[in-house]
Design a protein that fits this description.
Jelly Rolls; about 45% strand; 23 strands; mainly beta; about 270 residues
């Protein structure tokens, strides 16, 4: 069955989308605007995404669709967009780029009003997981939590739903040319995210709740995740630079498999 034959089963109404204008993580290079009627992407510097340059787009009256929980924008049957966003950050993927074997985002940015107030990077300190899944030559371990490549989540490898499995990492990031600067927040991206196989998000389990332990202070608390692949922010003030352990305490069950997936972790520093 072709991907778009199931769209009518999962159309979302655009009226709930407010206007968000994002600037490239490298300021002044690229921009991405999205409101309920209009999407505009400008690549002013001609920057590419790992060997591929995605050109400007200007779309009106696009369709926002949800396929197995994954948010797509339909504007061209052969080149839809996959957009992971909240009101602060966005990651945009293109089917055309994927067709050129580019699985990274074509654009990653910070909302214009937050420009200069938020810095982002993947975790730069040590990161370890208690278990991971291996399928053939693919090892779904901690390295996949530190990149934005599609179809590369961390997948725990324990029997059952992964309750008690954990990620241990340092709350540090690459900031102001300091590769181990303290981070005071993090964005978690849930689930298995794939462009051509969106069903893998629902087929596999997703994290519903983590127990967080600060191994430097022995403090402990819980965080709850919504069942969405979009970025979810969690404040780490008071725990900057500390070693943290996230342990799975509850999951959203997969419809086919019990394996629990987390797409990626992005550390942040808010001014």
């Amino acid at each position: 069955m072709k991907l778009w034959t199931i769209l009518l089963l999962s159309l979302l109404i655009n009226s709930g989308i407010s206007a968000d204008n994002y600037e490239d993580i490298l300021p002044g290079k690229r921009s991405f605007l999205m409101d309920k009627n209009h999407i505009n992407y400008e690549n002013n510097a001609g920057l590419g995404s790992r060997r591929y340059v995605f050109r400007d787009i200007d779309l009106w009256d696009y369709q926002l669709v949800n396929i197995y929980g994954i948010p797509f924008v339909k504007y061209n049957e052969s080149n839809p967009l996959l957009i992971l966003k909240n009101r602060e950050i966005v990651y945009v993927y293109s089917a055309d780029a994927v067709a050129h074997d580019v699985k990274w985002e074509i654009f990653a940015g910070i909302e214009e009003s937050k420009s200069g107030k938020i810095q982002l990077s993947f975790p730069t300190g040590s990161i370890k997981v208690s278990s991971y899944l291996t399928e053939g030559s693919i090892i779904y371990d901690e390295k996949f939590l530190k990149n934005s490549v599609l179809r590369q989540p961390w997948i725990e490898g324990a029997p059952g739903k992964g309750i008690g499995e954990s990620i241990t990492f340092e709350a540090v990031m690459d900031r102001n040319d300091n590769p181990r600067a303290a981070a005071n927040g993090m964005y978690l991206f849930n689930g298995f995210v794939s462009f051509d196989k969106p069903h893998l998000y629902k087929y596999n389990a997703r994290v519903k709740q983590f127990r967080v332990e600060d191994l430097d202070t022995d403090e402990m608390w819980t965080i709850n995740l919504i069942d969405t692949p979009n970025p979810q922010y969690y404040d780490l003030k008071g725990h900057e630079g500390h070693t943290l352990r996230l342990s799975i305490t509850d999951v959203y069950a997969g419809t086919k498999w019990e394996d629990t997936c987390l797409n990626m972790i992005v550390m942040s520093y808010k001014m």
